[in-house]
Specification:
This protein has a two-stranded parallel ribbon with strand order 1-2. By secondary structure, it is of the alpha+beta class. Helix content is 42%, strand content 11%. It is built from 2 helices and 2 strands, in the order H-H-E-E. Keywords: Protease inhibitor, Serine protease inhibitor, Signal.
Length: 114
């Protein structure tokens, strides 16, 4: 009887892992589509200075993404890590980037200056 319980528990764990990775896989597909569209963006017309969009960071761990953002734009002073679906204030700041992550701490949305 215990082995059936263990098998059911293993199936539940496997399902949860697949469900969380699905968002990351879909985000990687989105990254490829968005990076083509970003080539036409003229950053000279934007209000904030320096790099502002990091489409290449979808699917990477949050700590790596945070380091990369701070390296590539020295004007960014705050990188917030936010769980996907969490509410955030609608205010805008040129020195802030929010990293939207899943439960595995993987970036699932394109990080932008916000």
């Amino acid at each position: 009887m215990e082995s059936k319980t263990c098998v059911k528990f293993a199936h539940i764990i496997a399902f949860l892992l697949l469900a969380t990775s699905f968002k990351t896989l879909m985000a990687q597909v989105e990254r490829a589509q968005v990076s083509d569209g970003l080539k036409s963006v003229d950053e000279s017309n934007l209000v904030c200075q320096g790099k502002q969009i990091w489409a290449e960071l979808i699917g990477v761990p949050a700590n790596f993404a945070k380091q990369k953002i701070l390296e590539e734009n020295s004007l960014i002073s705050e990188v917030q890590i936010v769980l996907n679906g969490s509410p955030v204030p609608a205010d805008f700041s040129c020195n802030r980037v929010r990293l939207v992550v899943n439960v595995l701490d993987i970036v699932v949305q394109i990080p932008v200056v916000s």
